[in-house]
Amino acid sequence: MKSILTNYRYILILLVIFGAFSCVPARQYQDEKAAREKAEAELADMKTKYDELSATNTEMEETMLQMEKEIMVLENDTTMTGISLRKMIFQYDKLNSLYEELNRKHQELLALNMSETEKISTELQLTQEKLNQKEAELLKLENELNLRKQNLDQLQADLLAQEKRIIELEAMLHAKDSVVKALKDKLTLALEGFENNGLTIVEKNGKIYVSMDESLLFASGSWTVNAKGKDALNKLATVLAENPDINIMVEGHTDNVPYKGSGQVKDNWDLSVMRATSVTKIILNNTKVDPSRITAAGRSEYVPLDPSNNSEARSKNRRTEIILTPKLDELLQILESN
User: What's the CA gap between 134 and 114, in Å, rounded?
Assistant: First the structure.
């Protein structure tokens, strides 16, 4: 653009000089005028273009300044990025060197410990096998323990049931003892006039033994009950009728002197049976005594009170015992259930 303006100035100066010092014909003047006007028009046009180009140049300069600023920013960013990149490259190289060193040492360790690793692997396999075996044994023991626990639970349940039965038995035995004691007291009171006069009442083994001497009931060798004996037996029957839960055993006993009889009663067996039967029938004269409660038995000479072979011992052995036992049906049921 500056070269165009310079050329324009040169042309104008030449025209002025030419017009002042030359004397030209009119036609030539007209031509020169036309050329000058054309030059002026061109100059004006060129000036307009110059102004436009100047404006464009200013705008481009501003753009260039903005771009230079941006380039400076980018250069700064590039510089910082380059610094960061160099740092990262340095750190990377350092880490890579460290990794290579560690990898080298790792390979050395692998090479050195290969046999040790195989040994450990073998031991680990053996240990695993032992562990599996122990687990199997533990499972077996656990199953056995569960089975034993089930058995123990069953035993504990059985034990509780047994304890319950024992408590029931103890309660029944206590009740039985109470019944036996009360019965003894009643018999003692009812037979007060006979006790120690050929009659004794003894509590033994949960039973009551009413022992009646031969002299209280029979004549020697006889099985017919005398009046005094009947009186005692009737009073006894009254007490038995009032206590229906008592079983009655009537036993006849003789001494060891052979009995020589005739007819149906021939020996001590027969005599002991006949005496027990006679006593039983008198007790059953009391209709309130259930016959199913009573049993008559002859024991002959074979259950003596005193085994001595003298008259005093023989006198003791000739007796009739009435053995009274509380009914133990419930007790027997519990025992059978055990």
Answer: 30
**Three-class SS string for 129-179?**
HHHHHHHHHHHHHHHHHHHHHHHHHHHHHHHHHHHHHHHHHHHHHHHHHHH
Q: Which residues contact 301 (CB under 8 A, 6 or more apart)?
A: 253, 254, 255, 256, 268, 317
- The rounded distance, in Å, linking the Cα atoms of 87 and 9 is 62
Q: How many CB atoms lie within 10 A of CB 202?
A: 11
Return the SS3 of 201.
Answer: strand
Note the pLDDT tens digit of each residue in 91-108: 888 888 888 888 888 787
- The domain defined by 181-337 folds into 60s Ribosomal Protein L30; Chain: A; (3.30.1330)
CB-based contact 304:314 (threshold 8 Å): no
pLDDT in tens, 60-74: 888 888 988 888 888
Judged by DSSP in three states, 247 sits in strand
DSSP, collapsed to helix, strand or coil, labels residue 258 as: coil
The torsion of the CA quartet 9, 13, 18, 20, rounded to 10 degrees, works out to 140
What is the domain partition of the chain in residue ranges?
Answer: 1-54, 181-337
Phi-psi region of 263 (alpha: psi -120 to 50; beta: other; left: phi over 0): left
pTM for the whole thing? 0.53
Q: Which amino acid, one-letter code, is at 258?
A: P
CA distance 250 to 334: 27
CA 326 to chain centre: 49
Task: Give the span between the Cα atoms of 140 and 130, in whole angstroms.
Answer: 15
